Amino acid sequence: MVSQPDLSVNIGGLKIKNPVITASGTFGYGNELTPFYDPSLLGAIIVKGLSLKLIPGNPPPRIVETPCGLLNAIGLANIGIEAFIEEKLPSLFKNKTPIITNIYGHAIKEYAEMAKRIESVDRIAAIEINISCPNVEQGGMAFGTDPDTAAMVTDQVVKNTTKPVIVKLTPNVTDISTIARAVESAGAQAISVTNTFLGMSVDVATRQPKLANIIGGLSGPAIKPMALYLVHKVVANVEIPVIGLGGIMDYQDALEFLLVGASAIQVGTANFINPKAAIEIVNDLTDYCLREKISNINEIIGGLKTNGENHEKIGDKKNK
Amino acid sequence: MLEETVLIEFNRQIGKDTWLMGFRSADLASLAKPGQFLMIHLDRNTKDPLLRRPFSIHRIQDRNQLMILYKIVGKGTLLLSSLKEDDPISVVGPLGNGFTISGPHERPLLIAGGMGIAPLFFIAQALNKIQKHTIKMFLGFSTSQEVVLVDQLKGLNIDLSLTTEDGSLGIKGLVTDLLDEYLRQELNKKPVIYACGPTLMLKKVAQKAITSNLRCYVSLEGCMACGLGICQGCAVKAGNSKDKPYYYVCQDGPVFSSEMIDWRAI
What is the average per-residue pLDDT within A148-153? Predict the structure, then answer.
């Protein structure tokens, strides 16, 4: 009898039974994929991004497929945090799998207010902050593109909750390590890398953009090499755990992120294509560990072999 | 709703760029209602095309055979047409709400433009079983080479009026041209309209139905990544709801009562 490998990891104080988490916006409000499998078998569930009030979202077309990628401009459509807590949360599977809410606001005080509200809800285990959205108080520039603003948002959320706070970084910046260090200093317990890459697609026949919003965020296998690079870079620059995401379709993709140093991974676009993608990754990681005689998944994390080249090559490790 | 890998039984061209594919699944067939759709993963080994593609359930035969009817319009459907007998495809479904079937004494009017015939064939099958009155159908294509399924539809006891835009077969013009003339004579019989086709055709039909105070169900298309209500890509502007600004084609539809949609936004 071979003993099962230990897949549990620790994300800034949040212990999860395996490193597979669903990415915000690709798993609905938590229940939608239950016809296909029991979501409680996953490490954690991150539900659709929530704002203070209902957001109707962008006019259609909201999505377009590009080679190996999905370009979306949903417009952060959601029912609002109160409706989620009152209407969706009570009917979610009653088990111990952590539910993480992803939140976003258009002003720093909105983040603070949501953190305060979530603090009173036991069933929510942690908060992931989306800082890729425009800051209306600062001319619409995304919070996540400026280290000071990113730190201020993080600080306000951390001050209003005792739950672990994960900051999800945007890749659309000059130097992601500066932002990563800023949110770490502001008290973030973990960092998710990365959100979607800004992109466009044009219909040559009509000469119109394929998205009504003109620009959108690119996800899927097309972004995986870039996302891996960013995880590699952030891991070299912070001490807190990094959750890797960007185009993970199967367990081998997940392993790539773990090897470059991600403590956990998120499955996003793959959920749309294969509703069982996330649970298959959990099962395949288990089989992989058994096959490779790995008793604890933490043995893999950061195990990238680089022939002497190391993380410091690409980053300027803050302790140096 | 379930996910199943099925083997293709046949996949053949039946008209210009138009293909009919069949596969067997007793489970999917037993759950399927007219107007519902399937999300088909064309090839698990490729990442381009990446997403599943939505297809209306076109027909159910022998209780366990499902068919889809499709036109080659891009990379995905081109790949689909290259698949052969016994090739596996992953199917998620049945999805969406489906048509509300009228009672045995109502007078159904089916209006299909081009590939809009795909789901309407299935509802015609269902109506044929329960209807006392003859089913009226307007079926339109752009040209004679695209015309498909006429004989099969006649076998379903349908009074069919065929149009082509270039007049190469049937009546020259659009199905919506026939609607005006039909309603001048039959409006008092309160036909119930079931329509599927290009968006602008549906807009015309729906607006005509609204002004004529007729019940009308339209089956819409939407760009969707999942078909499961998660991605929220397939938004369509709601016409009658204060608390719901958008409906989602995959979940709230694909069949909508005509007054539910804000046709001005289309």
Answer: 96
Whether the predicted pLDDT of B243 surpasses 80:
no
pLDDT band at A320 (very low <50, low <70, confident <90, very high): very low
In a domain, A318, yes or no: no
Q: Is the model's pLDDT at A313 over the cut of 80?
A: no
**Contact indicator for B25, B64 with CB cutoff of 8 Å:** yes
Total structural domains within chain B: 3
pLDDT digits (tens, 9 = 90+) for A158-212: 999 999 999 999 999 999 999 999 999 999 999 999 999 999 999 999 999 999 9
Question: What phi and psi, each to the nearest 5 degrees, are found at residue A59?
Answer: -65, 155
By residue range, what is the domain housing residue A148?
9-313
Of A33, A58, A64, the CB nearest to B223: A64
How many domains in chain A? 1
Active site residue A289: no
Which of B95, B130, B154 is the endpoint of a domain? B95
Please tell me the distance in Å from A62's CA to the nearest CA on chain B: 5
B232·A68 Cβ contact <8 A:
no
Q: Which of A45, A73, A133, A243 is catalytic?
A: A133
The distance between the two most distant Cα atoms of chain A, rounded to a whole number of Å, is 63
Residues B88 and B130 reside in one and the same domain: no
Greater model confidence, B242 or B183: B183
Q: Are strands A99-103 and A44-46 parallel, antiparallel or unpaired?
A: parallel
CA A120, CA A125: separation in Å to the nearest integer? Answer: 11
Q: Give the full edge-to-edge strand order of the sheet including A69-72.
A: A63-66, A69-72, A216-219, A197-199
A275-285 average pLDDT score: 98
CA distance B194 to chain A (A): 24
Q: Looking at residues A80-98, what average pLDDT do you find?
A: 88
Gap between the Cα atoms of B254 and B194, Å rounded: 12
For residue A56, which residues of chain B lie inside 8 Å, CB to CB?
Answer: 245-246
Per-residue pLDDT at A93:
67
B231 to A32: CB separation less than 8 angstroms, yes or no: no
Q: Residue A207 falls within a domain, yes or no? A: yes
Residues on A contacting B at a C-beta cutoff of 8 Å: 25-28, 32-33, 35-36, 56-65, 67-70, 72, 74, 77, 220-221, 249, 269, 271-276
Please give the Cα distance from A226 to A193 (Å, whole number). 10
Residues 6+ apart with CB under 8 A from A313: none
Kindly state whether residues B167 and B228 are assigned to the same domain: no
Q: Are residues B188 and B246 in the same domain?
A: no
Instruction: Give the confidence band of A318 by pLDDT, cuts at 50, 70, 90.
Output: very low
The verdict on a CB contact (< 8 Å) between B235 and A65 is no
Q: Are residues B190 and B115 both part of a single domain?
A: yes
Residues of B within 8 A of A68 (CB-CB) are: 47-48, 50
Q: In this complex, do B50 and A64 lie within 8 Å of one another by their Cβ atoms?
A: no
pLDDT at residue B240 in the model: 78
Identify the CATH number of the domain in which residue B185 sits: 3.40.50.80
B231 at interface of A, judged by CB pairs closer than 8 A: yes
* CATH code for the domain of A216: 3.20.20.70
Rounded Cα gap, residues B248 and A57, in angstroms: 12
Q: What integer best gives the mean pLDDT of chain B?
A: 94
Q: What is the pLDDT of residues A28-38, one digit of tens each?
A: 999 899 999 99
Q: Is B73 on the interface with A (CB under 8 A)?
A: no
Give the range of the structural domain holding residue B138, as residue numbers without chain letter.
99-212
